[in-house]
Write a structure and sequence with these properties.
Length: 218
Amino acid sequence: MVKVLEKLGCEVQYNTKQTCCGQPAYNAGYRDEAKSVATKFLHDFSEQTYIVSPSGSCTGYIRNCYDKLFENSSEHNLCNQVQGNAMEFTEFITGVLKKEDVGAVMSCKATYHDACGALRECGIKAAPRKLLSNVGGLELVEMAECETCCGFGGTFAVKYEAISVGMAQVKVKSAMETGAKYIITTDVSCMMHMQGYIDNHKLPIRTMHIADVLASGW
């Protein structure tokens, strides 16, 4: 992600002291612990600048849930500032930098998985496809039910393992039916879940983050 942003003329700063945004604790019902981690996040990223994340899930959580954690608190104004600065990688490139072609080249056939965090929490659907359509040599083929959840869902995969694995099976099967070599997505959590299913069944397909695709060939 940094490689692509720098190529597009951005000055990228990385705070080595940063930790989690707090989403895992929040989704598991540990609101006090989530607020503690989220408070650190606010101060780690308190500068008035864009916060670009390679995860629609993290971005969506910051935008949609931080208000509930910091309502009527001394951190509320800082919360609003950070929420306004938080952006997912592909929407930043297409929406802020106004770029759709980053000069990437990757000669293969691939399909795109709409990660729930990006699609449902951030409303991101067109941006990744615009960027992928301009990757030299890449044949992008839509799979059936591309918007269907892969089954990870954080703690859902732990609490409802059988259902979670079944959803991964359906998603990977749909991808393989396109003849694609790669399943491209915006979220590492989806990749981890689907790749786990792929590895366990020794299937001839791989997951790949869109940042790695956009950083290919140059």
